Amino acid sequence: MLALLLLQAVVSQTAVDAELAFNRTAQEKGQWTAFRAFAAEDATMFVPEPVKAQKWLKDREDPPKSVEWWPTESYVSCDGKLAVNTGGWQRPDGSVGYFTTVWQREADGRWKWIVDGGDRLTLPRSRPAEPKLVRAACTPPLDARVQVPSMDIVKAGVAKSSDGSLEWFWGTTADFSRTFTASLWDGKRYKAVISDRIAAPAK
Questions:
Q1: For residue 153, what pLDDT is reported?
Q2: CA–CA distance, 142 with 135 (Å, rounded to integer)
Q3: 25 burial type by CB count under 10 A (0-12 exposed, 13-18 middle, 19+ buried)
Q4: Distance CA 29, CA 135 (A)
Q5: Is the four-CA dihedral 52, 118, 134, 165 of positive or negative sign?
Q6: Which of 13, 20, 26, 126 is the most buried (most CB within 10 A)?
Q7: Can you name the residues that pair with 159 across neighbouring β-strands?
Q8: Kind and range of the H or E element at 181?
């Protein structure tokens, strides 16, 4: 069954399809099993410090019941090879929050996540029947620089899609507060579409 779900991820038409398959696998096969299966080899997650996901997830036992999540928005590069999804999650204990995940289409057509993060919320995000899908303009981007917020960054990750139409950045400070931003080329400029600010964990 897991192999079938992964095959579905390979042929997924969008990163939203991959996100839904990711969540479905977590519900049916286990939370960390799904995270391992859908993560790229060099994927990054936050616990709360940034870690290499595959190393952190290796041999980690699944919790009795997985967190559930659903996409609300997906921002996609012009060439369709990179996307940033965001949406809501709910834990078995009823607590809620949001996630932001960067997805990359591999050479074999498989979608893999390369950055995953999020935070708690006091109220849950809505569950739209169809998540909002926004694709970057395909006119050539003029600015080769990735916009980086002003912070006392200790560790960071930054990249653009291969066609330059979608860029993302994450950075953490010494107390493990962090930021994530994503910007989409609209034909004239890069427009910020996601701006997450995550407070330092309570001590």
A1: 76
A2: 17
A3: buried
A4: 32
A5: negative
A6: 26
A7: 168
A8: strand 178-185
Domains of the chain: 2-57+65-198 (3.10.450.50)
How would you class 109 by CB atoms within 10 Å of its CB: exposed for 0-12, middle for 13-18, buried for 19 or more?
exposed
Strand partners, 183: 167, 192
- Residue 66: phi and psi, rounded to 5, are -80, 150
Query: Could you tell me the CA-to-CA distances from 199 to 20, 55, 110, 148, 195 in Å, in that order?
Result: 28, 25, 33, 18, 13
What pLDDT, in 10s, does the model give residues 77-123?
999 999 999 999 999 999 999 999 999 999 989 999 999 999 999 99
Amino acid letter, residue 176: F
What is the pLDDT at residue 113?
98
pLDDT tens for each residue of 113-154: 999 999 999 999 999 999 999 999 998 776 555 555 556 778
Alpha carbon distance 65, 89 (integer Å): 13
- C-alpha gyration radius of the chain: 16
Residue type, 161: S
Rounded to whole angstroms, the Cα distance separating 166 from 83 reads 8
Token pair listed for 22: 């990711």
Output the CA–CA distances (angstroms, integers) from residue 45 to 41, 57, 165, 188, in the order listed.
Answer: 12, 10, 24, 32
Mean pLDDT, the chain, whole residue set: 90
